[in-house]
Amino acid sequence: MSEAMIEGWTRQQRSRFLKDQTIAARIRMIRRFGEFTNLYPWQWTPAEAEAWISDLRSGDRALALSTIRSYEITVRLFCEYLTDNRYGWMQVCADRFGSTPQLVFHEGNSVLHIGDYEGSPRRRPLTYDEIQALFDAADGRAEKIRENGRKGALAAMRDSAMLKFCYAFGLRRSEVCNIDLVDLRRNSQAPQYGSAGSVAVRFGKASRGGPTKRRTVLTVPEFDWIVDVLEHYLAEIRPAFAPGAHPALWVTERAGRISPRSVNAALTAARDDANLDPVLDLHCLRHSYVTHLIEFDYPVRFVQEQVGHTHASTTSIYTGVSNEYRNQLLTRAMRNRHGELWSES
Description:
mainly alpha, hpI Integrase, Chain A, 3 strands, globular
């Protein structure tokens, strides 16, 4: 009966077009909760749920608030499926076992979502100096590898160009991996950028149960240095991998498509060589892109379209403008209000 419940819930999620990996992770979580309680789903009570969360919080490694909430939400979704009269599990359990499933997580024993952002406060945009240090370290890796007589110099040059590409277009790691050569496109309003005038992102982050989102990211003047980077990569570095007819922009030594893990590894290696904060990850480059576009005085709506955010509030979460920029805005506002009198004082 328990397996039939899980199978039915799996079918329900597939009918919503959720990804297989999402469904699999949820099923593992339900089995994990079941193993902890050593009870069947129709025997679960809020007491078991609260004991589970207490046990998770008492471990040596503290779990993030958002992680705990995701666990609770998964169990609650499964229980909501079981208690939905349209599926008949309540009646079947009552007839066979004399007890019925119930919602074990409710408002009184669940983590409440009261903040817009619950990620690590240490995750932040990089400063301009940190960006420069990161890219200098990435550029220097190939030279160090050659000096030490080791293999991997070509991959290091690719990684350097790839990290700059991530930052220059504010891309997620999965988006970077799925970019093909045909996705580099011209922009009629900026013909000087050639085929690097824009990037067509065809595998953007999907909404739950929906297809991947598409967007076009324009090359902006402040990041036009990426044009030379891409030209050099396409002319000198990528052909050395002998990718043949492979469509991917970023390829491996075996002429395959780069993986998200490899993108992460490239960032980690350059970050450590630059002696930057270990908490900084690839997504921080996306935070940096948003922040720096705002500091370049691009409208929030434009920035929102560039990074593919559905809501402007999400874009604002990514923004962490510097004190220098805020002071510039303050100076501009004071001059507009008080004119020359304020400037002289």
